[in-house]
Predict the structure.
Amino acid sequence: MLAQLSSPKFLRAALPAASFTVLLAAIFYVQPRAMSYFGMNLMLQYTVPIALATIAQMFIITVNDLDLSIGAFVGLTACIGATLLADTPLLGTLALAACVAAYAGLGALIHWRNLPSIVVTLGMSFVWLGIAVLILPTPGGTAPGWVKALMGLKVPYVPFPIIAAIVIGLVVHVALMRSSYGAVLRGVGGNPKAVGRAGWSLLKAKMTMYAAAGFFGVLSGLSLIGLTSAADAHIADRYTLYAIAGVILGGGEFTGGRVSPVGAVIGALTLALTGSFLTFLRISPDWQIGAQGGILIIVLALRALINRREA
Amino acid sequence: MLKKALMGATLLAATLNGGLALADTSAKRIALSNNYAGNSWRQAMLASWDKVTSQAVADGVVAEAPAFTTAENQVTEQAAQIQNMILQGYDAIVINAASPDALNGAVKQACDAGIVVVSFDGIVTEPCAYRIAVDFKAMGKVEVEYLATRLDGGNLLEIRGLAGVFVDDEISAGIHEGVEENPQFEIVGSVHGDWAQDVAQKAVAGILPSLPEIAAVVTQGGDGYGAAQAFAAAGRPTPLIVMGNRYDEMLWWKEQKDANGYATMSVSIAPGVGTLAFWVAQMILDGKQVPQDLTVPFLTITQDTLEESLANTQPGGVANVEYSLEDAMAVVTGE
């Protein structure tokens, strides 16, 4: 039993959850008011769209790519959600579906021409931003009522953001880690040649993962306007880095198809909570980005330590 | 764990309810949520906030009034910041917002938690918040009205701000409205000076050769000194140039005044408007009736107040005025 608990594999999986728990305990110590239904709800609310964007990024990282446009993309879907989807639901749904299809198309392009994903997505981030500004030139719009109602849901006993995080983590875990096609998809990141020889279409796999990323990007944008009730083309610019950091913090690797959906969600929560923690400590926001980077480095250093034991 | 959580919730509800009806604000805490600090105006705003609120804390008017600035001028970051302030139990939050609409969700949560929200400069549209807005249109109109008292009429050169920005459109609309009401004036040329001396100087120098005699220059602030330099370089008589409270503009004006009795006026928004928002928040906590929408008076410098304003302004800075509780009351009651 003890041997099992101290095995590198277990430690590695437990690290994200452990860092999250330590952070939460520290927050409760500094600001006891946070330890309530109301407090948890308030503090974790904005982690829902971040968790969804992190999952989107995780899909891309699974196939050894990196998405530098997810923040701008979330901003675009938020703008569509606050304008087209609210005014003409059919047109809005079509536009969002087109966004997902565009992401699948990006996956196909990157695979076909063997392009570096960083360059393609960096370029696309300006395209998404441009379209978002065209749709919503000045900040505004209104979120559809049902999105606001969903994000403002008051569940008895357990705050809604916690339930949302558990549902997101579990659904993606089952789909990607437990299903047989999920294993193939992860294999594309691990050993594409072997997967290709086994007769699976690499093109289809990449398109599936990019489409999934696009879908979760749409969910992220919608959940975000459900909270803010209005949109802005720049509303989610920060999400690109948050999402990458969340995946890595949650135990994912940049290469090899080694990711963890539950870990990614916890990673996103941890990152978002560091902001609250540092605010409660009265640390100037100018230091917060650096402090978040510091926490990231500590967690990664711990992981490197575990990995060495694994090897 | 559950029991503890529920207890925490009741405790919080109790503190929130208890803090509403009292008239004494010495135990109240007011926080500033600021979205940006990257220019001299914002730096002056934060310095004013610090100066006035630390005095208020020392006098026992409020318990504390810290300022928080987000690092990246991002809506999501500021929304999270406001939510953290709600959790920290501030009684009032003063906001200079990154977006007029996208913070409404967080602002509404603050209102629902019984927190007074006062927005200024970058205002929010959520109805439950108080707004201290700037009437830029009136600012433009005041310039032409002043010219009407000084001149019989003549040609005007208009220097505009940064194209496509709401503030530029508003000030310009005010100027044009003023000209319509005073038909003895005619705007014969218009350039964009981007609120910067060097840009304004270049733009004015470019258009001057094509213009008839100019009686006066209407500006938006930050561009008056550049216009004066352009007129001097072209060897043309210096017209009446309306200034915008910047240090270099006032310094030039002072030199001209001493040399040849040059007279003009200067108008802009004082960065100390944040301290007005502070007092408005304090008054609301004190139980006073305050209208939901207030308008900031702009800071006008006249021939008589020039020396005093210049002496109180840092080189490279902007003329400022910090509000006292009495000043804020005068604004609220519409004096």
User: Anything to note?
Assistant: The interface with chain A takes residues 2, 4-9, 11-13, 66, 68-72, 74-77, 79-81, 83-84, 86-89, 99-106, 108-109, 113 of chain B (CB under 8 Å). Chain B has twelve helices and twelve strands.
